[in-house]
Structure formats: C-alpha cells, structure tokens
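Open question from group meeting: does this chain pack into something compact, or does most of it stay loose? Before anyone orders reagents, we agreed to write out a predicted structure and look at it together. Recording both the input and the output here so the notebook holds the full record.
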Amino acid sequence: MPAGPTLLEGSLTVTLQGGYVAVDRLRAALCAAFAVHEQGTVSGDQEKEVDLELRTKRQ
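Structure tokens returned:
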C-alpha cells in the first residue's frame, strides 16, 4: 500500500545510491509521500546517485 502525505517541519535532503531499479522505486515511493525536488544526479554503468530535497506535499 502506498504511503500517504507526511508532514515535515521543514525540508529534508536525502541521497539515494544504488542500482537503477532500486533508486527509481524508492524515489517513486518518496514522491507518493512528499513533494520531491531533484538537486542532482550522477549515473554510472550499474548504479546511480540522486540528491533530493523533500518537503511536505501541499494538498
């Protein structure tokens, strides 16, 4: 079951690192619960790293 919106008192910065499928799935789950803004991405042959800023999703 997807997560619903979650309240944050400010913004939160996270770095996701791993295989393409795993990072994409985690990012999709975070997008279901938060407003997500991409800060940067680095891609390799088998892994990628994504820096995200999370904020409370506005209804």
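Observations to bring back to the group:
The CA atoms of residues 16 and 24 lie 9 Å apart.
The beta strands are 12-19, 34-43, 47-56.
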